[in-house]
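Is D-mannose placement plausible here? Inputs below.
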Amino acid sequence: MKMVFRWFGEGNDTVTLTQIKQIPGVEGIVWALHDVPAGEEWPMDKIWQVKEAADKAGLHMKVVESVNIHEDIKLGLPSRDLYIDNYKKTIVKLAEVGVKVICYNFMPVFDWVRTDLHKELEDGSTALFYEKEKVAHLNLDEQVQRINANPNFTMPGWEPERLARLTELFDAYKDVTEEQLFENAKYFLEEIIPFAAKHDIRMAIHPDDPPWPIFGLPRIITGQDNIRRFLNLVDSPYNGLTMCSGSLGANPANDIVAIVNEFADRIPFAHIRNVRVYENGDFIETSHRTTDGTVDIAGIVNALHDNDYEGYCRPDHGRHIWDEQCRPGYGLYDRALGIMYLWGLWDANRRKLQGERIGD
Ligand code: DNO
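Reply from A.M.:
I modeled the complex. Tokens:
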């Protein structure tokens, strides 16, 4: 298991590269050019800037999260070929600086969705929270009207650039079923996977978060059967999965240990975090510790170890603790604690199963 840490870039993150370097066992950053709109080719000079900063800090930059997919690709519009072409051009450039994994998602319109970014937990810390009923009953037309009337309107977790095209996008997705979305994913994968393979970059699809359709939009990376179907669309080691325990774990029906065991050799990247799912379907993000949430984090790390996992792994959203002011979910402290928990589980496995002395 190779430990990496998400970094949003100079001026865009409260966490510094020096701090990241001091977390035990972290060897690289997970990065992206967050100001390049989806569908555009990434400029080489900006890629080099990140490379220089990472080199200077003694960290590698082999994992990118994300090169986002333009909506026209997900919609299957004729213009998708142009955006697929740009995606390939970006792949060539990323290969040039040694990138090995690209994490991306195939969620229509929205990425992750929450209803509260600072919900208080029992211990006074705060964390990201999702209220199922609230999202189910959100009147989208009303929301779109409010958004259009107020350019500064925002919803937790919704990126402003995605909001700008909401009405148009909802309209465009009216006829896109789950089947159609799979078809459009296939078209994308058939173009991209052989190309990525040629450049030795493993593509790693991120599960939908939450893993069910929202706002009437289809979502397909929701559980074990759909992941199998997606990976079989193009059956190649370069068509991989970002195993995100928190996204999949929001649906307690997902057996994540089984997912790790079935797809182990197709998981180049793992996001490990815990969530606590309530009976009404709401969920809140907790510390990484197994007993604090509903996800079997210890079981997942054991399964990764049993499968001789050699891919990259990062802690994921943490709570906001010790008065830290940070990007929601992306503070230093709780994610660093998460890493130490993951290492603890991993090292205990090594010692138990292989009789290795820790440190060898
Ligand atoms: C949330 C992240 C996601 C993830 C994308 C991958 O914090 O896990 O935004 O980066 O879905 O494309």
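Short version: The first helix runs from residue 17 to 21.
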